[in-house]
Every structure is written in C-alpha cells, then in structure tokens.
Amino acid sequence: MQVCPRIQSHLKKEIKKSSSSSGILMARAEAFLRLFSILVLVFTACLIGFSSQTTLIFSTIKKTATFRDLGALQVVVYVDSVAAGYNFLQLTKGFISAKLKGKLVNLPYVTVSWVCFLLDQGAVYIVFAANTAAFQGCIFAETGESSLQWMKVCNRFTRFCLQIGVALLAGYLASFLMAVLSSLSAFSLFRLYSPKQFLLLKPTN
Question: What is the rounded average pLDDT of the residues 186-205?
C-alpha cells in the first residue's frame, strides 16, 4: 500500500523534470527563431530602402528608381521595420523573464500567453500580406499590363528589380520563420488547457 504513493510521487517528479526540460528547449528555439527573424526582416527593409538605380529613358531623361516609386514597397519597409522591432521586444522580454523567473509582469501566465499568441499571429499575417502586395506590384513591373497601359520597367532597371526580388524572397523567409514562432506560441498557450474539455484550464497541481 505504501509503494503506490511513492511511485506516484516519483512519476510526478519525472513529469515535472521532462516538462521543465522541454520548456527550456522551446525557449531556446523561440529565441533563435526571433533573432533570425530580426536579422532577415532588417535585411529585407534595408535592401529595399537603400536600393536604387539611375538610367536614361529615351536617351535624354534621367530616372532614378527607388522603393518610393511603388507604394507597396514603402509598406514593406515600414511593416518589416516594425515587425523587427516587435520581435526584438519579445526577445528582450524572454531574456528578462528568464532572469526574473517569469515575474516580469504582474499578470497571469495564461493572459500573457494569449497576448503573445495574438500578437505573433497578427505580425505573421501583416508581414505576409505586405510582402505579397509588393510581389504583385513587382510582377506588373516585370511583365507590364497592356490593358492598363503599364509599361515594363524591369528591362530598364534590371539591377534594381533583381535586388527587390531578393528582398521579397527574404521577406517570405521572414514570414515563414514568424509562422513557426506563432506555432510555438500556440503550443505554449493551448497546452495549458485540458484536451478533453474546450478552454478548460488544466489543474495547476
């Protein structure tokens, strides 16, 4: 009769150890993904923002192509800059929270998890949408649109278009990394709830 309580106590200790180790691994993975996302987002914003090319049009007119010529590219620069700042704040929050053992804010852990999950979801959608809108605009710059009387411009600004194309690919990579981060946030949140009943928190004991 005394063996069962000992076994149960031992199992509880083992479960706590395994959950603690898995939590540490997830925190490290999240920190790496956020750092990598920041670097890719900054690279995308800088490559678009500092790319330019000057060429002659009709042999007499000088024209300089910059990201300001397409509104969608401006949106990408601003959105990626804000997204990089957001991920930096989340990364800083994670480090400080680890030092303070989760006592960074005086809020329930579930509330903080919900806020992080919703912010991560929104950041992914906004970055992906901005990147896709810019990609569509760049397709028109590459192929033109006769029905709208839009001329091809990439045949005149080849280097600029190539740089923008590389930046947009990096933007999609950042979107993918942030989608993985959002999945980690979802896992960290919904593992707090019971798998048997909808939105019922697991007992803390």
Answer: 69
d(Cα 204, Cα 8) in Å, to the nearest integer?
16
Q: What is the pLDDT of residues 28-57, one digit of tens each?
A: 888 899 999 999 999 999 999 998 888 777
Query: What is the per-residue pLDDT across 135-159, written as a single tens digit (0 to 9) for each?
Result: 988 887 777 666 666 667 777 888 8
Which contacts qualify for 86-94: CB closer than 8 Å, 24 or more apart? 86/119, 86/123, 87/34, 87/37, 87/38, 87/41, 87/123, 87/178, 87/181, 88/34, 88/38, 90/34, 90/116, 90/119, 90/120, 91/31, 91/34, 91/35, 91/38, 94/27, 94/30, 94/31, 94/34
Higher pLDDT, 40 or 204: 40
State whether residue 64 is helix, strand or coil: strand
Structure tokens at 156: 């005149």
Q: CA 156 to CA 186: how far, in whole Å?
A: 46
Q: Which residue has the higher pLDDT, 180 or 144?
A: 180
- List the one residue out of 113, 126, 116, 121 whose CA is nearest residue 82: 126
Residue partners of 202: CB distance under 8 A and separation at least 6:
192, 193, 194
